[in-house]
Amino acid sequence: MHTTSAVPTRAAAAALDDADPLACFRARFTGTDDEGPDRVLYLDGNSLGRMPRDTPAALARVAEQEWAQGLVGSWSGWVEHATRIGDALAAGVLGARPGEVMISDTTSVDLYKLLVAAADARPGRDVLVCCADDFPTDRYVVAGVAAQRGMQVREVPAHIDEGLDTGVLSAALDERVAVLVLSQVAYRSGALVDVAAVTALAREAGALVVWDLSHAAGAVVADLGASGADLAVGCTYKHLNGGPGAPAFLYVRRELQEQLRQPIWGWFGAADQFEMGPVYDPAPGIERFAVGTPPVLAMAAVEVGVALVAEAGIERVQAKGRALTDLLVALADAWLAEHGVALASPRDATRRGAHVSLAHPHAWQLTQALIARGVVPDFRTPDRLRLGPAPLYTRFVDVWDAMERLRDVLATGAHESFPAERTRVT
């Protein structure tokens, strides 16, 4: 059991809030006004981010002005939204160049598009590699593409708490591997992967890498340009606060764009979209990875969320995320270990994203008991309580108070009154 000499006090947490350079951003999100002792403590921003206060006005502008008044004429501006917002995301969050990122489809569809394009770019190679503990969609898409193309899947094992060992990964990369699919931040434990180091390993083996940045974008530094990353996808409804069902993004390194042809040939990806020609000819640049009509209303919400993260600065966001999770880990060590709770994430903050998982045999019941007490976490199999303090709107005192409520639940056995079997997904 890990021990600590000094348990952080609530006063110490409040002092961290007073010194927080990002404190002003909290007021720019809905649901943050309540200061009462029974207020809802939202620690699930890594599943769905809070709504920015500017989002309703952005949606209203598109609906009431551009759509209601401009009608079809508004397409003259809308048609560029995917790449314009993509450029803002590239510069302000992902460390990419203009023309390398676009808003497009869902994460799963974008992963399929880039995976097939990358596999086609490595003819003669018949293996796709992914992590055995990666998010299910990623593994499912890899398996589906392999089945369609007569390829083999090589799943690399990873520690459920500590994440992927690059030495194990390196041994799985050889001349047969076409593409590696990997998350920068593990969805369950928050374990962080070194993008530059893994990209270099794959490149040495002659393979391309498709990165899933869903739990990373808006929470940790990706720096796709400096790391030499080839391809990436990610969602915008978690730390980018784009709202439920918000469209995803994809990244393609500029030098690869003309070499790749994605498999879904839609008219928005055509070279002369409105020529309505008889034969598909892909557009130059990042636009060739588009498919159909983009969700204009939803992109308006994404734009607001991206702008907030860019204004805050991804380096500062990452630094606060580490500090918040460090506090969470310290309190778990001090208060919860005696109740059978174990840290299920890397202890070193530089090796994790902005969420922490705690293991307990009754994690499902603890999740329900916390929700009943006004703390919103989520549950992950097999026995993980996942806590995601989003840096833009979560305070240090929020983490302290949430952990105190969790301590009380365990001390009183309040969770034991909840069904042991999962009855719904959180």
Automatic annotation (TrEMBL):
<dbReference type="GO" id="GO:0009435">
    <property type="term" value="P:NAD+ biosynthetic process"/>
</dbReference>
<dbReference type="GO" id="GO:0097053">
    <property type="term" value="P:L-kynurenine catabolic process"/>
</dbReference>
<feature type="binding site">
    <location>
        <position position="212"/>
    </location>
    <ligand>
        <name>pyridoxal 5'-phosphate</name>
    </ligand>
</feature>
<feature type="binding site">
    <location>
        <position position="267"/>
    </location>
    <ligand>
        <name>pyridoxal 5'-phosphate</name>
    </ligand>
</feature>
<feature type="binding site">
    <location>
        <position position="237"/>
    </location>
    <ligand>
        <name>pyridoxal 5'-phosphate</name>
    </ligand>
</feature>
<protein>
    <recommendedName>
        <fullName>Kynureninase</fullName>
        <ecNumber>3.7.1.3</ecNumber>
    </recommendedName>
</protein>
<comment type="similarity">
    <text>Belongs to the kynureninase family.</text>
</comment>
<dbReference type="GO" id="GO:0043420">
    <property type="term" value="P:anthranilate metabolic process"/>
</dbReference>
<dbReference type="GO" id="GO:0005737">
    <property type="term" value="C:cytoplasm"/>
</dbReference>
<comment type="subunit">
    <text>Homodimer.</text>
</comment>
<dbReference type="Pfam" id="PF22580">
    <property type="entry name" value="KYNU_C"/>
</dbReference>
<dbReference type="GO" id="GO:0030170">
    <property type="term" value="F:pyridoxal phosphate binding"/>
</dbReference>
<dbReference type="InterPro" id="IPR010111">
    <property type="entry name" value="Kynureninase"/>
</dbReference>
<dbReference type="InterPro" id="IPR015422">
    <property type="entry name" value="PyrdxlP-dep_Trfase_small"/>
</dbReference>
<keyword id="KW-0662">Pyridine nucleotide biosynthesis</keyword>
<keyword id="KW-0663">Pyridoxal phosphate</keyword>
<dbReference type="InterPro" id="IPR015421">
    <property type="entry name" value="PyrdxlP-dep_Trfase_major"/>
</dbReference>
<dbReference type="GO" id="GO:0019441">
    <property type="term" value="P:L-tryptophan catabolic process to kynurenine"/>
</dbReference>
<comment type="pathway">
    <text>Amino-acid degradation; L-kynurenine degradation; L-alanine and anthranilate from L-kynurenine: step 1/1.</text>
</comment>
<dbReference type="InterPro" id="IPR015424">
    <property type="entry name" value="PyrdxlP-dep_Trfase"/>
</dbReference>
<feature type="binding site">
    <location>
        <position position="293"/>
    </location>
    <ligand>
        <name>pyridoxal 5'-phosphate</name>
    </ligand>
</feature>
<comment type="pathway">
    <text>Cofactor biosynthesis; NAD(+) biosynthesis; quinolinate from L-kynurenine: step 2/3.</text>
</comment>
<feature type="binding site">
    <location>
        <position position="215"/>
    </location>
    <ligand>
        <name>pyridoxal 5'-phosphate</name>
    </ligand>
</feature>
<comment type="function">
    <text>Catalyzes the cleavage of L-kynurenine (L-Kyn) and L-3-hydroxykynurenine (L-3OHKyn) into anthranilic acid (AA) and 3-hydroxyanthranilic acid (3-OHAA), respectively.</text>
</comment>
<feature type="binding site">
    <location>
        <begin position="135"/>
        <end position="138"/>
    </location>
    <ligand>
        <name>pyridoxal 5'-phosphate</name>
    </ligand>
</feature>
<feature type="binding site">
    <location>
        <position position="108"/>
    </location>
    <ligand>
        <name>pyridoxal 5'-phosphate</name>
    </ligand>
</feature>
<dbReference type="GO" id="GO:0019805">
    <property type="term" value="P:quinolinate biosynthetic process"/>
</dbReference>
<dbReference type="GO" id="GO:0030429">
    <property type="term" value="F:kynureninase activity"/>
</dbReference>
<feature type="modified residue" description="N6-(pyridoxal phosphate)lysine">
    <location>
        <position position="238"/>
    </location>
</feature>
<feature type="binding site">
    <location>
        <position position="107"/>
    </location>
    <ligand>
        <name>pyridoxal 5'-phosphate</name>
    </ligand>
</feature>
<keyword id="KW-0378">Hydrolase</keyword>
